[in-house]
Amino acid sequence: MKKLFSLLTVGTLVLALGACSTTKEPVVEEFSAEYEMKGTTSAGLPKNDTFIFEGETTDGIITKLNFDIIRNKGLEDEYSKKDLYGYEMNVSDGAIEEVNGALNLTNLSASGFVKYPGTDSGVQFMVRASLEGLTPESTFADLVVFDLSTQSTMELENAIAAYSYLAAESGIEELTGDTLVIDLMSAFDELVVDGAFVAGEQRVSYAGYNGGRSYGEQIDAIVDYILANDMTLEDVYDMFRTVNQQSTPIEERDVISGATISFVGDFQRTVYLAIHGELFEGVTNATEADGSTTVEVVTQGYGGEIETHVTFDADNTITAISVRDDQESEGVGAVLTADGSDFLNSLIEGQSDIESVEVSSGATVTSEALKKAVQMAIDYMNEK
Fold it and tell me: For a 10 Å CB count at each end of the chain, is N or C smaller?
């Protein structure tokens, strides 16, 4: 009996401990953000792109995610940019016309990123080919290939490199000068029918250097990467802020397989909104040394946050402006943020009326962000 009582006591204790222990339920939270970017299309038409970033986190890890970009949201011509068949690159337009019973290839374009033979680095390319008297026997070497970036006719070996992605889409393992044009264009199922050319126009897309066939594929690749790597919202924000930036060479954009999209500021701003609910702009710090005051200001540029340091002397006159952190486009906005740039100097010279300082053509967003930063610094000093 004594042994049985002991066993019952131990059993009761175990049951009691089990009743006291609880399994921690996972914390599931929803997040949602929309950020509208207004501007103009490459054709100069007005546009608005609404970045949508919404889903769920489980214990901080993103487990559900809908990422989309809606053009003209709320308007009659609203559409998802994920539905775009071609995106800046990895796309080819074909056009064949019939003239007096003969067929002419008026356009066979290709665009993307390529490393030409004998070069160590790659370039973005846009080329187009044409041929009068197109026949099923026409070869690739017969084409006249024009490089739109250099405004010159291309050498055969470079033309082969440029069209190699389209060739792969058509099932050609190795493109050569002897490859038949009709085989190269077999991906155009409206222009090549039953082994013969047909007059008309068609666009096709293809897998490029390291990007998908369409904008939607590239966005989906980003989503898949986020989910597969158990990322938090903060992780994604940091990735958008530091990886695949506009100035990063495409061959180095290999963090996310299948996406050559450059993560400009709109991506990171959207995630920042999902985390914080609103974007931040303003003075973050002010330090005094040797009779001068340096005011640190954060504003939103084209590539994301810009941290501008504005230095004042004892008379509250601006003596120096420098940019310590930005992701503006190389050769565009980055020209303005560079130390001693003409634009920064113009802000110093025009400090009595910052609003009148002329923005830089082609880098309007960066210009306005820098002007705002300097004005915020001036206002801060005046209110001290």
Answer: N
What DSSP character marks residue 133? S
Contact 329, 303 (CB under 8 A): yes
Single-letter amino acid, residue 43: A
Listed in sequence order, the DSSP H helices in 233-363 are 233-242, 265-276, 333-337, 342-349
Q: Which two tokens stand for residue 185?
A: 């264009």
d(Cα 232, Cα 26) in Å, to the nearest integer? 15
pLDDT exceeds 90 at position 104: yes
Residue 355 CB neighbours (<10 A): 7
Residue with tokens 């959207």: 270
Q: What is the pLDDT of residues 114-125, one digit of tens each?
A: 889 998 878 888
Q: Return the C-alpha torsion angle 321, 322, 326, 331, nearest 10.
A: 90
Mean per-residue pLDDT for 19-40?
A: 81
Q: How many helices (H) and strands (E) does the chain have?
A: 10, 16
Residue 212 corresponds to which tokens in the numbers above?
């998908």
pTM for the structure as a whole = 0.66
Nearest-10 Cα torsion for 107, 150, 88, 193: 20
Which are the contacts of 223, defined by CB distance < 8 A and separation ≥ 6? 65, 67
Rounded to whole angstroms, the Cα distance separating 201 from 104 reads 12
Angle, helices 342-349/364-383, rounded to nearest 10 degrees: 40
The whole-angstrom separation of Cα 311 and Cα 285 is 12
Q: What is the mean pLDDT of the chain?
A: 86
The percent of residues in the chain predicted with pLDDT above 90, rounded, is: 55
* pLDDT surpasses 90 at 75: no
Alpha-carbon distance of 150 to 328, in angstroms, equals 25
Cα–Cα distance between 339 and 322 in angstroms, integer? 6
| Structural contact between residues 129 and 108, judged by C-beta atoms closer than 8 angstroms | yes
Rounded Cα distance, 323 and 339, in Å: 7
What confidence score (pLDDT) does residue 135 get? 96
Q: Are 361 and 354 in contact (CB under 8 A)?
A: no
Coil, strand or helix at 230:
coil
